[in-house]
Protein: Quinol:cytochrome c oxidoreductase pentaheme cytochrome subunit
Amino acid sequence: MIKTTNYMLAKRIIVRFAAACLFVCCFVFSGVQAYAQRDAVPTDEAIIAEGEKLFSEWACNTCHRVDQKLVGPALKGVYDRRSIDWIYQFVQNSQRLIASGDAQANAIYEEFGGLQMPSHDLTDDQVLSIMAYVRHTEENPPAAAAATDTAGDGTQVAAEGGIPSKYLNIIIGALIVVLVLILIVLGLIIGVLKKYLQDKADLDEEDQEVVNEKFDLMAFVKSPTVIGIITFLVIVLAAKNVIDGLYTVGVQQGYQPTQPIAFSHKIHAGQYEIDCQYCHTGVEIGKNANIPSVNICMNCHSAIKTDSPEIQKLYAAQESGEPIEWVRIHNLPDLAYFNHSQHVNVGGIACQTCHGEIQEMEVVKQHAPLTMGWCIDCHRNTSLNTKGNGYYDKLVELHNSNAATPMKVTDIGGLECAKCHY
Structure:
């Protein structure tokens, strides 16, 4: 009986030890496999640069971040969680992989509310270069952005250059005090000199009359000369104010209305680096940049921030079928023609040139005056984007033969009236 008990105990120990060894082996080999997957991702700088370029060109950053979940999953360590071959298939055609019944693909599909990643016409090497960029970013995270400077009371300190208005007022006040003191000193000096002359006994009659003469303020004010000067100054100042007022007609620089939905460009274009063209789809193909419709918003917000009160307004607009009545900010008069695609697609002009640092605006405001003079200055100072465009070859050759400066917009008729007014 004792032998049987010892045998059973020994058998139980051996089985448990074998199970523990099997568990350890599985754990170790799974780690080896994960590192093997990571090692399959190249670290060559040229491949990383190509991956970064593709990541931007194919708008991967619209839905993905390396270190955080966005519209899609975070890409950090994706090569450790999935096989490289599986990543190729999912990136190139996720719909086909989901339809095949792949468990991992369907799990991602369900986790993100039925959103399917678009198919991408990328080769295996191109996908691998994107993985190289992801690995490089994961292993070499960018330095954290510098904290915003704040004053002692917690208010943000202005980052712009120049003298703060508070100090400017102090300086002006100090100058006024100095001028008043100078006038007082001059008055005292005149008084001392006058008293000195009055005490002299050898003054002739004319000098004595000048010394004893008293200043008549009312007579001075009523004199024709003073009245004429004051009248002239009033007319000039009034005319200047009228002309300045006429120049501001239709100019809405600084206009910052409250929108029906609190949309933050600082979050979308700044923090998440979503391309302007993703929402303003017409900017590269037509005259108008167009205001995005609700379905563009729902591409992301059908799965993220769904409980936000502002996002609920999107759902209400989608259900009612009524468009959101956004308040237009940038308006040009009907007499002026402006084409976004001509400037953005052909000219290569950045959005910030006209709209300011839009990626830093919580609430959008009109940055530029959008006046004719402002446009003309831009045409005078902006060099043509002729690189890689054979259309300009002859013009550039002709221009360079006669001028030492780069060819500007004005050199191809950028100041002709009919270019903008027809």
Observations:
- Residues 169-247 form one domain.
- The chain has four domains: 45-139, 169-247, 251-291+326-369, 371-422.
